[in-house]
Amino acid sequence: MIRTYLLLLLFVAISGHAQNTAVSSNEKLVYTASYNMSGILNDIAEVTMETSAVKTSKATLLRLKCTAATYSKWDNFFKIRDLYESYVNPNNLTPYLYKRDINEGNYYKNMKYTFSHKTKTVKSIQKKRNKPEEAKTISIKPGTKDIVSTIYSIRLLDYKNMSVGSRKSFTIVFDRKELKGQITYLGKETISTAIGKKECYKLAVGSSDTNVLQGNNSNLIWLTADSNKILVYGKFKIPVGNGELKIKSATGLKN
Amino acid sequence: MKKILTILALITSILTIILAVLPISNLALIPGILALLFGFMAYYVSKQSGKIKKIVPFTLWLTGVALVIISFKAIFNKSEVENTEALEAKETKFEEEAIEELEELDLEEIEIDDSELENLDIE
User: Fold this and answer.
1) Which of A25, A72, A254 sits opposite B82 (nearest CB)?
2) Per the CB < 8 Å rule, is B105 touching A114?
């Protein structure tokens, strides 16, 4: 479920290298993920998206971290503790190292990607419970990103100069495969959120993998129409139903 | 008719109380409303025929209890995330490992310009 939410969130990317004018290095966004059961929305999990600076002896990178944890009332039924993180160039959010640690009930999976943009390859290491470690090198197209850096990269797009109906394509490496997706700009809309009434850019998200996103313009996200362009609301239709992602709090914004 | 309404009221009221005690308690509203509807209809039909079986007011009482539980949970139960110590420990461990792994990588490839970094709010 949470994997799907994150998959849904990822579907926007940047072709080329837009400069980072929206994502700060100490930002924290907290969301509530809800799932529609018989027409009634149930809050299932808390999703946190956090950034921080990471210093190595050679450079300072930006750590983009996403965590998903089910609310305690669900833990006895289905406990989720997922961690996704990407270490990126702070200027254009190009990923260098990506880690994913999935812990959902009895299911466990750990994935690591090391990007080499020179050779256009990704070295992956996959670990699963009671299974041997699997290493695989994947060839990628220029501009291919991981799921986390893609989610953040949507905020670097220049929506001000986009006309309604215009589209942007992107490529993401997920589960050691390249996925194609696209976003369609649907215009501006003002919505009420937990952090106030916000004028937003409304975007439709689509994927080449029809098993992930269903319907035409059924998967929508709203980004604030300011220079931070933070995701405040999302509506998703997936194979197992539909759900929402609502912002709870936002701190440490860049602008 | 009376029998069918009574059975429906009983089934929906039991379903309501089961859902009410589960985390999906707000879903109990649907069978709860149906239970009240069937319960009052069964009560009305029984009253017209002259004899009200004890099971009819029992279904109404059961539904009432379930609705109180749903209301209590909706008002007082806050959605909170607990038991995240393992996740937090993993976050710290991953960061330490990542720094080591990043040290081994050819970071020149990233082409980070320090003058551009100055514009970031890195603490």
Assistant:
1) A72
2) yes
